[in-house]
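Input chain follows. Return structure tokens only.
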Amino acid sequence: MYESRTISGKKFWFWLSIGVNIGFLGFFKYYNFFAASFADALSLVGFKTNPWVLSVVLPVGISFYTFHGLSYVIDIYKNRIKPERNFIDYSVFVSFFPLLVAGPIERATHLLPQLQQRRRFDRAQMTDGLKQILWGLFKKVVIADNCASYANMIFNHPADYHGSTLLVGALFFTFQIYCDFSGYSDIALGTARLFGIELLRNFAFPYFSRDIAEFWRRWHISLSTWFRDYLYIPLGGSKGGMWSRIRNTFIIFLVSGFWHGANWTFIVWGALNALFIMPLIISGKNRHHLEIVAQGRFLPTIREAGAMFRTFLLTTLAWIVFRAANINQAWEYIRKIFSRSLFTVPEVTPANVMILIIVFMLIEWWGREQPYAIARLGLSSPRPVRWMAYYAILAAIFYFAGTEQQFIYFQF
């Protein structure tokens, strides 16, 4: 593609590469979904079919390394980078083990130069990496795995519980998915730092966001910016009229939902987030709140606290659809939450897990201006305080660890 002397030749190799990458992803991840959906559509008009479906295990992390490859090809096509002649360097870029199965989604322009330069051991970088790994393990093992036990129990049998308990289950899943995914990202970034590699940041305290637009600038940052650079902007971005902005916003959120999995729940989840962000797009306020909340202050204002609470509730509502097994379950789950049973005493109230969540959120708030929460320990804290904190976190990992749960994003 790079050496093609004609535009048509360049386009041929470009679209061939795009087709091969997306073809593998579509075949393994979406074939059964489309086959079943097509059969359901035919049954509505009276035709009964038994579609052939795949009985294969989805390759772990296929959505992530497919996007690595796509960004590489697109950047070459746009003349942002030159093709990598060293096959080993290219292979490491696509399959660097810390990010292979669950991201972050790297760019060739960011990672390849780091792989090609000579690296030297950096004690400060190593120490910082170990701290981030420690915090990631705490988030995954202590918060996410404990929340998962109760979230799974409630979501698997929603008909057995009152609306108040279903709300508790939704809150548990809200913290589970954040601590599970951001915990993995912390471990990946910390591990890469041990090898002298700086990966893209993937989370920036999203639950302290004051609106949905800010939330999506802070949640799964590598995916959000990927869709912005390789889909939203090529579609015209925000340069066209209001209708173009609305259309492009819906496209990226629907595609983002579909990227997560072959289930209508993910597509509806993407559409919900597009609806939530639409008032900000229409009013031109989607670029507000670029800095972290309460910058340089310990406490937020009442207005900021209210905005964070409202955004958190909208996010929790969307996570219900994301977690549900199907659209019918999501609808019944939400309908029951907004029934009179919401005002009953919850049947599931694990005080120990709730206390752990509160402590966790206080630490996150304390360190929200840093790349990760406990990075602040290395800035001004005396050595005895730092080591006491590290050992306390390590002890919590062993003492308060929940039942082992697979990382949620391994399925994507």
